[in-house]
């Protein structure tokens, strides 16, 4: 099988491998589809996507697509690459080709790599997807350009860029003048002994030095302005966008990985304001210095250009490998950070179950992979650093030898050779900067891809709603609501539910049936696939998130408490909530006395509330919901950690407040104040009589 070199497109999460593999095939044939859109086309959910969904998406984009099964590598060699393989029963990869010694695959998890015949035989399941352009296939788009992505980040900085360009262009003049002065000093003052030129020479030389200092200071000042603006604008915009992404985005990614992407903004800002700007100026100076070198000696200039061409050839040869390794490193490093945060957040459970060593082994394995990728990065980095440096040294030696031969033959003066050598340094130094920048640019390709995962992701559609606040009746109605995490596996089917104002309704059901999903649908965190949800007489889809958040309070089983005081945790930094309202909420949540005994509202809360018991944490969370003075309250297993008597008192207080309440529970003790009880079974709600519980 002849190898087909496919582009590198890395998955952002494990469930995206099928979408990424299909995006690789489409890009190979000239149809460049963003991974974010491919996720939607393939119907990627929290469970990923299957082969049938990928085939449907492939046909949608103009490919002839069919699944096949082979039982040997020999059968694969008869096919035309690339094809998609089902790998280890949980992953999709792209087969690029087969040689006598190894097999080439493009893995969405880590990029192009090779495997031995034995490794391939162990991992390949025999199932593959055959894809080729149909007669209706149309090329579309173009590969994501690194330079256009960087250029877009410089928008709005025209004034600063203009001054940097002018200052950099002006710097060329004194640098060339110093080179000319060196030639004059050697050829005229030293050789011809024109001593009367000494004072004018040093006067002009001093003026050039002062000019270089002033122009460099001006250049650095505007570069600093660019850096500050880039950091400020990009970070603020990035954080704003993160806050407005749908909840599903965060459920499918590590928190540590998302945090690390914020740091990537600063790295890109530093690169743009320092190396990139300096290198853009270097392109201009290289051209000007090259012209002057040709004037002094075209033979020596030709040698210099040859050395430059060799260095560029080396860079071009290792560029893709460096970029692939860098992308893989950044992705794995983000996941390692997420793993570390996960371990720290679960430290109590790890210790209670004696699993510290198991977690350490998992972390050590991920860390070893990071070290291996860092070593590969270092190798490519050394190639881009050492070879140009050696090329410069060899070229300098040859230039000196050839220049000396020209001096002996009267074709060149000593001053001209010295001036050429100075120009050679000023010519090649920016080139080395450019090659070094090339290495850095390959590193940030991964950063840009991970940032684009956020920038190109669709925002939560709720934030497009601009409804004005008005008095809404606190009833809840679900009409024929359907919802599915995976397209062909609906979780909720034609769900109908009505909760009158002020009533308390309970939903029972086994774990995994979708009880919490109903709660998230009512709060607006999820959107139904079909059907409608109404709050009062208004569709939830027409209520803005701000109004919805004030109207509906939601308490999950997983408690979130942050370092601060009880006042801050209950009010959630809302200055409109008074201390009196906080105390009333604590009283209704049956934790007022315990808080007062520990210092009142200024009582300190540790991270995740570890200085409180599990039941106390849940009651603080319930108090937070009650303090918002919402008309609707949803309790999703919120009282599961409480003793029956405390749970009964809290629910009684809630009922007396007249709140419309949905209680999701599995405990009979929570049903006493519920007027209606439903059981969720196989995606449908079944009414239950209290007498049969």
TrEMBL record:
Domain Peptidase C39: 11-131
Domain ABC transporter span(s) in chain numbering: 476-693
Residue ranges constituting the ABC transmembrane type-1 domain according to the UniProt record: 162-443
Cited InterPro entries: AAA+_ATPase, ABC1_TM_dom, ABC1_TM_sf, ABC_transporter-like_ATP-bd, P-loop_NTPase, Peptidase_C39, Type_1_exporter
Cellular compartment(s): Cell membrane
CDD domains, alphabetized: ABCC_MRP_Like
Keywords annotated in UniProt: ATP-binding, Hydrolase, Membrane, Nucleotide-binding, Transmembrane, Transmembrane helix
PROSITE patterns the record matches: ABC_TM1F, ABC_TRANSPORTER_2, PEPTIDASE_C39
Gene3D superfamilies cross-referenced by the UniProt entry: ABC transporter type 1, transmembrane domain (1.20.1560.10), Cysteine proteinases (3.90.70.10), P-loop containing nucleotide triphosphate hydrolases (3.40.50.300)
Protein's recorded name: ABC transporter
Origin species: Legionella quinlivanii
């Amino acid at each position: 099988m002849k190898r087909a070199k496919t582009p590198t497109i890395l998955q952002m999460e494990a469930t995206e491998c099928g979408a990424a593999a299909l995006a690789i095939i489409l890009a190979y044939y000239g149809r460049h589809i963003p991974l974010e859109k491919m996720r939607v086309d393939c119907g990627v959910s929290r469970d990923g996507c299957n082969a049938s969904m990928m085939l449907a998406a492939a046909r949608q984009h103009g490919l002839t697509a069919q699944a096949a099964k082979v039982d040997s590598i020999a059968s694969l060699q008869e096919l035309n690459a690339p094809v998609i393989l089902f790998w280890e029963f949980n992953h999709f990869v792209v087969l690029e080709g087969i040689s006598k010694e190894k097999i080439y695959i493009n893995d969405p998890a880590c990029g192009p790599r090779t495997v031995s015949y034995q490794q391939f035989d162990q991992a390949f399941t025999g199932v593959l997807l055959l894809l080729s352009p149909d007669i209706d296939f149309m090329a579309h788009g173009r590969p994501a350009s690194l330079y256009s992505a960087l250029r877009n980040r410089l928008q709005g900085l025209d004034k600063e860029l203009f001054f940097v360009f002018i200052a950099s262009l002006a710097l060329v003049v004194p640098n060339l003048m110093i080179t000319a002065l060196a030639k004059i000093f050697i050829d005229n003052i030293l050789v011809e002994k024109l001593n009367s030129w000494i004072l004018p020479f040093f006067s002009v030389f001093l003026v050039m030095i002062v000019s270089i200092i002033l122009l460099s200071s001006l250049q650095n000042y505007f570069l600093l302005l660019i850096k500050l603006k880039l950091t400020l604008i990009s970070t603020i915009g990035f954080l704003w966008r993160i806050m407005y992404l749908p909840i599903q985005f965060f459920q499918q990614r590590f928190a540590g990985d998302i945090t690390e992407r914020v740091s990537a903004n600063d790295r890109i800002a530093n690169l743009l304001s320092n190396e990139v700007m300096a290198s853009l100026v270097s392109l201009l100076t290289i051209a000007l210095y090259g012209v002057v070198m040709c004037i002094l000696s075209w033979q020596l200039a030709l040698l210099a250009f040859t050395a430059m061409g060799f260095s560029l050839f080396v860079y071009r040869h290792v560029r893709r490998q460096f970029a692939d390794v860098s992308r893989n490193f950044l992705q794995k490093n983000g996941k390692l950070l997420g793993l570390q945060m996960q371990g720290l957040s679960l430290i109590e459970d790890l210790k209670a179950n004696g699993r510290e060593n198991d977690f350490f082994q998992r972390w050590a394995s991920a860390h070893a992979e990071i070290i291996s990728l860092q070593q590969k990065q270092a190798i490519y980095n050394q190639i881009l650093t050492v070879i140009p440096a050696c090329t410069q040294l060899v070229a300098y030696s040859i230039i000196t030898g050839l220049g000396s031969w020209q001096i002996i033959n009267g074709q060149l003066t000593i001053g001209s050779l010295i001036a050429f050598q100075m120009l050679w340094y000023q010519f090649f130094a920016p080139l080395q900067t450019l090659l070094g920048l090339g290495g850095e640019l390959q590193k940030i390709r991964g950063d840009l891809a991970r940032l684009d995962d956020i920038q190109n992701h669709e925002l939560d559609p709720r934030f497009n709603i601009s409804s004005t606040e008005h008095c809404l009746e606190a009833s809840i109605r679900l009409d024929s609501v359907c919802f599915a995490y995976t397209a062909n596996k609906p979780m909720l089917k034609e769900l109908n539910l009505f909760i009158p104002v002020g009533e308390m309704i309970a939903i029972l059901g086994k774990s995994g049936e979708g009880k919490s999903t109903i709660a998230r649908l009512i709060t607006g965190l999820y959107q139904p696939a079909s059907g409608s949800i109404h709050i009062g007489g208004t569709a939830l889809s027409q209520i803005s998130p701000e109004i919805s958040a004030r109207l509906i309070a939601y308490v999950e089983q997983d408690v979130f408490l942050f370092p601060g005081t009880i006042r801050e945790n209950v009010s959630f930094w809302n200055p409109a909530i008074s201390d009196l309202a906080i105390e009333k909420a604590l009283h209704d949540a049956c934790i007022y006395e315990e808080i007062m005994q520990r210092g009142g509202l200024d009582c300190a809360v540790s991270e995740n509330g570890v200085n409180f018991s599990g039941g106390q944490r849940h009651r603080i969370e319930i108090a937070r919901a009650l303090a918002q003075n919402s008309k609707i309250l949803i309790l999703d297993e919120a009282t599961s950690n409480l003793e029956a008597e405390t749970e009964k008192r809290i629910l009684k207080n809630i009922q007396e407040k007249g709140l419309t309440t949905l209680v999701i529970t599995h405990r009979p003790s929570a049903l006493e104040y519920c007027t209606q009880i439903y059981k969720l079974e196989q995606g449908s709600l079944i009414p239950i009589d209290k007498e049969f519980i």
